[in-house]
Amino acid sequence: MNREDVTVLGLGQMGTALADALLAAGHNTTVWNRTPAKAGPLVARGATLAATPGEAVSAAGLVLVCVLDYDAVRALLEPVTGSLAGRTVVNLTSGSPEQARETAAWAAGHGFGYLDGAIMSTPPGVGSPASMFLYSGSPAAFAVHRETLAALGEPVDLGEDPGVAALYDVALLGVMWATLSGWLHATALAGADGVAATAFTPVAVRWLTGAVTGFMGAYAEQVDAGHYPGDDATLDVHRAAIGHLVHAGRDRGIDGRLPELSQALIERAVVGGNGSDSYARLVELFRKG
């Protein structure tokens, strides 16, 4: 395995987890943080503490940045652009696709490689191959550093457009929040009749990982084609079924705003003449805003 020298700038919870995973994989790891004391445990495990960002950048060909936002990234790197020439920066700071593209263009103007990344894990999951790290930007940079990046989690290459990783990040967070909110509503509903969340959840997980993911795969093809045959279940069927959910919640005093949102979307589609289409037809309502 290639033991690449790596620098990590920013030692919040996530940055610390990144550095720790690199150390565990045997990489020579230099770290820098505005508050040097945060680096103490990492130094005890073998990291080198740099006194300045310039010193940190000069220590490695691969520089990972994980700070508050893109403004902080630019403020941190702007004074050391001369030292970054010929190196690769992997920005693991959360932001928008537009910010990622602007930063990539700025990096190209200063002669250093750039990958934008999204960490699809909380800090405890960093270092596990089950965790997914999304990257977009320079294909050459990804190819050169892929093995090192694998120490953090499974590296997924989303292509040359540097904004795509951030786009996937926000989109997938939307999936997560919608799923968790739906599950919490369901546990409240079931709990009103005395069903423990720990009893309900294994059945919910089986439903999600089996049937629901199957729906998503089939509906993705419909979304891309713009054609929504209701071969499995029509919106008319969904309209009737979601009515049962809304009424069950009301009977139990459960806040119904979440299912009522889906109910309203289904109603709009049916009233618009699309009752015989599949649930995937609702994407058109989202597209129209």
UniProtKB/TrEMBL annotation:
Keywords: Oxidoreductase. GO terms for molecular function: NADP binding; oxidoreductase activity. Residues 161-288 form the NADPH-dependent reductive aminase-like C-terminal domain. It comes from the Bacteria. InterPro entries: 6PGD_dom2, 6PGDH_NADP-bd, HIBADH-related, HIBADH-related_NP60_sf, NAD(P)-bd_dom_sf, RedAm-like_C. It holds the Pfam family RedAm-like_C. Residues 6-156 form the 6-phosphogluconate dehydrogenase NADP-binding domain. Belongs to the HIBADH-related family. This is 6-phosphogluconate dehydrogenase. It comes from Streptomyces agglomeratus. The lineage of its organism: Bacteria, Bacillati, Actinomycetota, Actinomycetes, Kitasatosporales.
